[in-house]
């Protein structure tokens, strides 16, 4: 602590704190352009100049730390005139085309000149013009360098946070221009963070270009619904069309950052293909109908089916309230435990993953995880699946010197800030972690004596496990020793453990061994659907009730339902927001099976392939048209707010589910219109949600001190055991025979499931399906990136474009699960996510 | 005779010869020999207002024929009755002075109070309140005027100072009523 004086007031502040932060803490307003809490300070804009008594020259407060005895003046006449002069200088070379500029009305330069600036300029020299017309840098970014104030926030956010580093500064002085290499089209993540940080209208959104003014927009706070990171966004509409989704500095865990999906995937809401009226099958044909007819058909359809032969599948994109009521509907009035929310994964995989990542222990903040001395990322393609978590890991690990180890089979952007990268064979997370667990448990053998999982991997032996995973023993030893040298360990474990459930047991062993060695271990599960964790906690799982409590009778998971249906033994099924015909492992099987179900109700926002098979279609709404809460992967409960009315005759999903609930319960117990009542019930009935605080939602802080632990779910008393998993990826690969490449899948950077395919903006980023292999493999095959190749497996063959990825393990091919033209599941056996394929130039 | 009686007598004589009545009639009658103050509007005359008059909005073009409006929406923002709607769009073909032009520029005259704030707010002098004041209409749709119509050249040229009465023709047709001023034949208005 040091003693300083700010504007005459004596203060004690932490040593090393920036003068800017100390002054802002005290409530003094110091304007800045180039300063941003999360970025490296460069002190270039000179807006934050302050006077330190005894020093002749003014000092930039954003890079000057406090020192003992300093007397700082933030509003002295010299400082005020310096600020005003800085703005005058900026305006001498600013385009001043505010009426045309998209930023007009929300521009930091405008606000600053209005508040601090001279209202007349004395410079009459001609301005330097970088270029005439605005130029396009990407399908979503358009650039006008004439407006630049040279704060270089765009360059820093691109390299320090996003990690792609495609922007740089060209030239010096007024000729300085922040742009791409040779001003060419950017080959980047199209995340648009440069647009968000730009204080002026230099980087602009192309889709939003010239559509509106900031004051025309009506906005609502919402959550991005593409992955489970739970980024807070503000969605904005004009004349009933959603025109923008943006992040705000100091709001939510993502602060000002978002990925391409979050920032540009909003346009699904405006799609013309939305379902707007209920449809009922009459004489074998779907016809538009009234809601009364639809509900009447549902009443008749479900009444005539027996409880054990009724099934429900709800999308993990629905809100907690909807999922809670949906599982209550099934487990209550419909008396069936056949409820599932994760079509792609088996119920056992879910239990194992939840147990291994200690989800029952309550929510864990990502910032707590990143507070650890070493962080281990495993089983997730973090940079593609959860880009904002990737940003957080990169930012904090660079700032605090956290040791990051990454184990994955494909190269990723985050590799560049990792101290160790382990490239294992696909689907061998379990073997790799098993070997690590054996090494860790070396000294603690007594602890694991009775553990069946441990004994089975011990019988296999470290060297066999290491050989299977394709990682050398010394690398695994290096990983374990990095754990050994840190007091606190954070583990970020992802969806590969759900795809290959045999890995969860080893993950649990590693966590237990680390905890046994007295280390503080924080595990963050990383998921790819926005409310997947909430869905499990609301009891949309055949074996688990709310908050992971064990159900008496185990119901059927979605795979079980499909098997029963294919035998003609399922009377009715209610599918909300999912499209199993294209997304389930074996699409044709699902199509046949659903065709055999007596009565199918589909509630969705679009006319999907599954909806085409339905007897009743109920038009639901998207996130922009409803209220509710989502629980993200960390267990953070956040709310969304409605901005738009439902299109046409569509109703809010909660209204539909509660009407159906009331039909079958025979009461009017459930409020039809409001979600607040249901959330109150969730608080009462689901113990872990009792103390969740939603009030932080719209709180904003200038210091980017974003963590909010009050919104994390509490711990549950339920304890999950590691379920037995049958079959493994290894055995399935062995039966395929080795054909050269092992094909794996996951989410593409620009897509999440099939919903984002409806977005025209996201669709503009990639044209057609892509298969990804490592650079070395491509060289070996003599194929270059961009060529057409044929990928042939034993079950399916497809032609797609090849793209190489730096740093991927050899022999790994990747096709994202999001393409309509090449459904990757056709390569796999039903219920599996790995196959052996051959790649050749076509 | 007292003063009081004298006044009474004079008053009696005045009343009996209708003196006040005749004086009143004299003023009224004298107007018959002066020219008329009123305009013969709409049948044969039309008032051309001064340039400062605030009538129907006009959207202007520059000397090269490019639209001055850049659809910045400041007029719409400044409007106290919220009667202006602007929706911008991008146009690189040189329609306007910038690549931002108005896709929609509409003014709802039934709400407008002709305060001229839009004119003040406009950074490019694209919108001005013109000299058109014949705004009565029989349908509500006609109360809204949009860009295409407002961009048309004004019947009264900028050079004409106004403040004169022009000869006019009154045309009644199926499209409505129109009074066409002949700007060559003007007279000063009597004051």
Describe the structure.
By secondary structure, chain A is of the alpha/beta class. Helix content of chain A is 28%, strand content 18%. Chain A is built from 27 helices and 33 strands. In chain A, strands 15-14-25-24-23-16-17 form a seven-stranded mixed beta sheet, with helices on one face. In chain A, helix 7 (291-303) packs across helix 23 (653-665) and helix 9 packs parallel to helix 18 (504-516). Chain B is of the alpha+beta class and 191 residues long. In chain B, 21% of the residues lie in helices and 27% in strands. Chain B has five helices and eight strands, in the order H-H-E-E-H-E-E-H-E-E-H-E-E. Chain B has a three-stranded antiparallel beta sheet with strand order 1-7-8, with no helix packed on it. Chain B is elongated and about 100 Å long. The model of chain B has no long low-confidence stretch (mean pLDDT 91). Chain A binds chain B through residues 97-100, 104, 133-134, 209-213, 215-216, 239, and chain B through 70-74, 77, 87-90, 92, 98-100, 123-124.
Helix content of chain B: 10-25%
Instruction: Quickly name the level 1 CATH class of the largest domain in chain B.
Output: Alpha Beta
SS summary, helix count of chain B = 5
Strand content of chain A: 15-25%
The CATH level-2 architecture of the largest domain in chain B is identified as 2-Layer Sandwich
Q: Biggest interface, and residues per chain?
A: A-B, 15 and 16 residues
Overall radius of gyration of chain A: 28 Å
Strand order, sheet with most strands of chain B: 1-7-8
Distance between the ends of chain A: 68 Å
Global geometry of chain A: globular
Q: End-to-end distance of chain B, in Å?
A: 50 Å
Kindly state the number of beta strands of chain A: 33
Number of structural units classed as domains of chain B: 3
State the oligomer.
heterodimer
In the CATH hierarchy, the third-tier topology of the largest domain in chain B is known as: Alpha-Beta Plaits
Could you give a short account of the major beta sheet of chain A? 7 strands, mixed
Main sheet: strand order of chain A = 15-14-25-24-23-16-17
């Amino acid at each position: 602590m040091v003693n300083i004086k700010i504007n005459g007031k004596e203060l004690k502040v932490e040593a090393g704190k920036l003068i800017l932060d100390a002054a802002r803490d005290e409530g003094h307003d110091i304007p800045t352009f180039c300063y941003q809490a999360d970025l490296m300070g460069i002190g270039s804009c000179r807006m934050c100049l302050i006077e330190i008594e005894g020093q002749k020259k003014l000092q930039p407060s954003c890079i000057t730390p406090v020192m003992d005895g300093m007397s700082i003046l933030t509003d002295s006449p010299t400082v005020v005139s310096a600020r005003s002069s800085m703005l005058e200088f900026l305006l001498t070379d600013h385009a001043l085309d505010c009426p045309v500029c998209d930023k007009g009305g929300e521009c930091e330069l405008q606000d600053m000149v209005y508040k601090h600036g001279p209202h007349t300029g004395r410079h009459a020299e001609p301005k330097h013009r970088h270029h005439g017309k605005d130029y396009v840098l990407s399908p979503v970014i358009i650039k006008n360098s004439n407006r630049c104030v040279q704060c270089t926030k765009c360059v820093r956010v691109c390299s320090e946070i996003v990690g792609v580093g495609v922007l740089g500064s060209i030239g010096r002085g007024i000729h300085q221009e922040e742009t791409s290499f040779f001003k060419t089209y950017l080959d980047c993540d199209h995340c648009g963070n440069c647009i968000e940080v730009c204080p002026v209208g230099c980087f602009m959104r192309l889709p939003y270009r010239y559509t509106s003014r900031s004051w025309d927009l009506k906005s609502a706070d919402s959550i991005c619904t593409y992955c489970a990171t739970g980024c807070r966004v503000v969605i904005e509409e004009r004349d009933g069309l959603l025109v923008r989704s943006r992040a705000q500095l100091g709001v939510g865990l993502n602060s000002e950052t978002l990925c391409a999906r979050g920032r540009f995937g909003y346009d699904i809401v405006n799609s013309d293909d939305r379902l707007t009226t209920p449809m009922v099958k009459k004489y074998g044909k779907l016809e538009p109908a009234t809601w009364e007819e639809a509900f009447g058909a549902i009443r008749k359809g479900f009444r005539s089916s027996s409880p054990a032969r009724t099934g429900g599948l709800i999308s993990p994109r629905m809100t907690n309230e909807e999922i809670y009521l949906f599982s209550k509907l099934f487990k209550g009035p419909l008396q069936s435990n056949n409820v599932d929310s994760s079509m792609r994964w088996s119920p056992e995989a879910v239990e194992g993953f939840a147990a291994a990542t200690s989800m029952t222990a309550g929510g864990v903040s990502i910032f707590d995880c990143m507070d650890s001395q070493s962080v281990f990322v495993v089983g997730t393609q973090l940079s593609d699946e959860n880009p904002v978590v990737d940003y957080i890991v990169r930012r904090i690990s660079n700032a605090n010197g956290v040791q990051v180890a990454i184990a994955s089979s494909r190269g990723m952007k985050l590799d560049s800030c990792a101290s160790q990268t382990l490239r294992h064979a696909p689907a061998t997370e379990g073997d790799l972690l098993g070997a690590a667990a054996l090494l860790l448990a070396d000294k603690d053998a007594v602890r694991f004596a009775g553990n069946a999982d441990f004994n089975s991997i011990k019988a296999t032996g470290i060297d066999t496990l290491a050989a299977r995973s394709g990682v050398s023993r010394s690398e695994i030893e290096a990983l374990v020793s990095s754990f050994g040298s840190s007091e606190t360990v954070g583990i970020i474990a992802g969806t590969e453990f759900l795809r290959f459930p045999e890995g969860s047991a080893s993950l649990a062993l590693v966590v237990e061994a680390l905890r046994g060695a007295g280390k503080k271990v924080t595990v963050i599960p990383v998921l790819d659907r926005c409310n997947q964790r909430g869905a499990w906690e609301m009891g949309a799982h055949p074996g688990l009730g709310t908050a992971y409590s064990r159900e008496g009778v185990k119901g059927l998971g979605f795979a079980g339902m499909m098997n029963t249906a294919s035998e003609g033994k399922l009377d009715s099924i209610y599918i909300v927001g999912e499209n199993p015909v294209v997304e389930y492992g074996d699409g044709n099987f699902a199509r046949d099976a659903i065709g055999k179900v007596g009565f199918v109700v589909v509630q969705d926002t679009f006319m999907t392939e599954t909806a085409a098979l339905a007897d009743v279609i109920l038009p639901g709404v998207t996130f922009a048209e409803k209220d509710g809460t989502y629980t993200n992967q960390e267990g953070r409960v956040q709310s969304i707010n409605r901005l738009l009315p439902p299109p046409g005759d569509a109703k809010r999903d909660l209204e539909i589910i509660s009407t159906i609930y009331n039909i079958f319960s025979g009461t009017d117990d459930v409020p039809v219109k409001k979600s607040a009542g249901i959330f109150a019930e969730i608080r009462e009935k689901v113990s872990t949600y009792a103390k969740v605080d939603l009030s932080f939602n719209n709180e904003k802080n200038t210091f980017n001190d974003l963590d909010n632990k009050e919104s994390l779910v509490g711990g549950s008393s339920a304890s999950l055991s590691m379920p037995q998993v049958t079959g493994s990826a290894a055995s399935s690969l062995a039966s395929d025979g080795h054909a050269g490449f092992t094909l794996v899948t996951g989410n593409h950077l620009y897509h999440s499931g099939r919903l984002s395919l409806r977005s025209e903006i996201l669709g503009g980023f990639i044209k057609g399906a892509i298969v990804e292999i490592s650079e070395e493999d491509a060289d070996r095959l003599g194929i270059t990136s961009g060529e057409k190749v044929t990928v042939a497996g034993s079950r399916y063959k497809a032609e797609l474009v090849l793209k190489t990825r730096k740093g991927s393990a050899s022999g790994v091919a990747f096709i994202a699960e999001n393409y309509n033209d090449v459904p990757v599941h056709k390569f796999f056996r039903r219920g599996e996510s790995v196959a052996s394929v051959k790649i050749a130039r076509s | 005779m007292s003063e009081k009686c004298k006044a009474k007598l004079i008053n009696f004589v005045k009343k009996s010869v209708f003196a006040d009545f005749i004086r009143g009639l004299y003023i009224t009658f004298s107007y018959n020999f002066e020219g008329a103050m009123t305009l013969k509007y709409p049948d044969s005359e039309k008032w051309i207002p001064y340039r400062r008059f605030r009538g129907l909005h006009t959207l202007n073009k520059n000397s090269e024929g490019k639209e001055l409006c850049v659809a910045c929406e400041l007029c719409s923002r400044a409007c106290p009755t919220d009667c202006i709607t602007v929706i911008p769009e991008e146009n690189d073909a040189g329609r306007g002075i910038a690549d931002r032009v108005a896709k929609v520029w509409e003014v709802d005259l039934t709400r407008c109070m002709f305060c001229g704030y839009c004119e003040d707010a406009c950074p490019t002098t694209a919108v001005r309140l013109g000299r058109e004041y014949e705004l009565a209409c029989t349908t509500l749709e006609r109360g809204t005027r949009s860009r295409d119509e407002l961009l048309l050249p004004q019947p009264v040229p900028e050079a004409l100072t106004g403040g004169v009465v022009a000869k006019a023709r009154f045309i009644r047709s199926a499209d409505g009523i129109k009074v066409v001023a002949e700007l060559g034949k003007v007279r000063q208005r009597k004051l």
